[in-house]
């Protein structure tokens, strides 16, 4: 569409005609939205048309690049830094598996910059459950960097790091279905994490999103979506994995049995509100849970260990995650995060 800056109207006309936007045009559209220059109707029309057409790698990358450029950044060493932020949107009210997995990976020595938000689709997002666990979530970028540097893990509350997303907030609430915005959160880690376990609601899109991560500079990633509808590695079904390594994406399936884990009914990993989910995580870390709750955390924590370089394979990662829980290190890491964020919040208060 030439080198001129595309307007929302021209972009919408192109998408409705079935044409893909170039990365540059996608950046232009997202810049208009993030600068508050698009109406709610225009934003809704663009994201709906993109959803119906199917978002491409270039479109998602362009949107993500602009959101990153508008974000508050956490200045820290990026090498080997892991995020476990997923899209949500599975429609299954599970507990906060990626949050528990992040804690275990950190306890194993992986540097974790956990990015997350309050619930968009489930009953409790990572911010909600961490708050219920006693973690202070409202850290500034400097405080998050200090937390990460001192104890090897931090939580970055998305609302504080992506202020420009306020321009799309009303549209997201009102249209009520998943759009490109659901994919953007996990693609815009404020600390620039270069390792990632990303759960995706749409199994058809795992290869595309893995390619986008590569375009954004991520070195190693697994984008996962289970055959039974989870944006996690499942212990009830096989899971599709698109793995990014050395700039190349390979897509394959893994089963619970290949990870050394038994199968469970999907209903056995259902959670509740933030307090219920916090209680589940505490019981897992105390060794009081030995069933589906523990096993699905092991599956996903094992992938975190593998991506973070703390294990040489997924099955070895699962075994290492079990050892971390049984040693008490996961519970100790959670307590360390509670205390560290409490101190930081007290000082700033």
Automatic annotation (TrEMBL):
Where does the record place a coiled coil? none
So where does this one cross the membrane? none
Q: Where is the Glycosyl transferase family domain?
A: 80-331
Q: Where is the Glycosyl transferase family 3 N-terminal domain?
A: 10-70
A GO BP entry is: L-tryptophan biosynthetic process
Q: What is this protein called?
A: Anthranilate phosphoribosyltransferase
Cellular compartments per GO CC:
cytosol
Named from the GO MF annotations, one term is: magnesium ion binding
- Which family is it part of? In the C-terminal section; belongs to the anthranilate phosphoribosyltransferase family. Belongs to the anthranilate phosphoribosyltransferase family.
Q: Where does anthranilate 2 bind?
A: 172
Q: Which residues bind 5-phospho-alpha-D-ribose 1-diphosphate?
A: 86, 89-90, 96-99, 114-122, 126
* PANTHER family according to UniProt: ANTHRANILATE PHOSPHORIBOSYLTRANSFERASE (PTHR43285)
Q: Mind listing the UniProt keywords for this protein, alphabetically?
A: Amino-acid biosynthesis, Aromatic amino acid biosynthesis, Glycosyltransferase, Magnesium, Metal-binding, Transferase, Tryptophan biosynthesis
Q: Main EC class of this protein?
A: transferase
Task: State the protein's purpose.
Answer: Catalyzes the transfer of the phosphoribosyl group of 5-phosphorylribose-1-pyrophosphate (PRPP) to anthranilate to yield N-(5'-phosphoribosyl)-anthranilate (PRA).
What's the Enzyme Commission number for this chain? 2.4.2.18
- Lineage in the entry? Bacteria, Bacillati, Bacillota, Bacilli, Bacillales
- InterPro entries membership: Anthranilate_Pribosyl_Tfrase (IPR005940), Glycosyl_Trfase_fam3 (IPR000312), Glycosyl_Trfase_fam3_N_dom (IPR017459), Glycosyl_Trfase_fam3_N_dom_sf (IPR036320), Nuc_phospho_transferase (IPR035902)
Catalytic activity annotation: N-(5-phospho-beta-D-ribosyl)anthranilate + diphosphate = 5-phospho-alpha-D-ribose 1-diphosphate + anthranilate
- Binding-site residues, anthranilate 1: 86, 117
Which pathway is this protein engaged in?
Amino-acid biosynthesis; L-tryptophan biosynthesis; L-tryptophan from chorismate: step 2/5
How this chain assembles, per its entry, is: Homodimer.
Q: What are the required cofactors?
A: Mg(2+)
Q: Per UniProt, where does Mg(2+) 1 bind? A: 98, 232
Which residues are the signal sequence here? none
Q: How is the cofactor bound?
A: Binds 2 magnesium ions per monomer.
Is ATP-binding one of the keywords? no
